[in-house]
Structures are given as structure tokens and as C-alpha cells.
Amino acid sequence: MAKVRAKLIFFMLLLCALAVVYTSYENRQLAQAWQVQSNENAQLQEEYGRLMLEYSTLAAPSRVEAIAREKLNMQFPDKLNTRILEHQNAFE
User: Fold this and answer.
1) What's residue 5's pLDDT?
2) What's the half-sphere exposure (Cβ side, CA atoms, 13 Å) at 6?
3) Which helix (H) or strand (E) element contains residue 44?
């Protein structure tokens, strides 16, 4: 009976040791994957910042106005090109 108990304890210790090795290996794998994802996140945040800066530069009102004047020959309306329309309520 003592030999069976000793073999059972040995087998359980062996399983526990294998479980510790496996979880350590998985932990290292997950830590490495987390580091890769963290680096990718930092790169994406940096790119997002550059894109937002570029967007704000391209969408600046002064730039839009300059393009409208130069390429589309647009101009601000003056008194001769302005009409005032009165709104008539249909339910009155």
C-alpha cells in the first residue's frame, strides 16, 4: 500500500512540475506578445498624431480659402452679388 501511495505522490508531483513549466512557458509567450502589441500600439499612436497634424494643416480655413481663390476662382460675395430673400410662412 505504501508503494502505491508513493507512486501516486510521485506522479502528482511530476504533474505539478510539468504544470509549472507549462505555465511559465505560456507566461513568457504572453509577455512577449504583449510587448509586441505594446510596441505596435505606440507606433500607431505616433502615426495617428502625425495624421491629425497633417489633417489640421490641410483643413485649415486659410488653406481652403487660398485653394478656392486660386484653383476655383471663387471670391467672397459683395453687395452686388448678394440677395436677401424673405421667408413666407405657408400656414398664415
Assistant:
1) 93
2) 3
3) helix 2-58
What residues contact residue 63 under an 8 Å CB cut-off, 6+ apart?
A: 57
Instruction: Please answer whether residues 69 and 75 qualify as being in contact, where contact means their C-beta atoms are separated by less than 8 angstroms.
Output: yes
Is there a contact between 80 and 86 (Cβ–Cβ < 8 Å)?
Answer: no
Q: Locate the domains of the chain by residue range.
A: 2-75
The CA-based diameter of the chain, rounded to the nearest angstrom, is 111
Task: Provide the percentage of residues in the chain whose pLDDT is more than 70.
Answer: 97
Distance CA 29, CA 24 (A): 9
Q: Structure pTM? A: 0.56
The rounded radius of gyration (Å) of the Cα atoms in the chain is 36
Cα 76 to the chain's mean position, in Å? 40
Is the pLDDT confidence value at 89 over 80? no
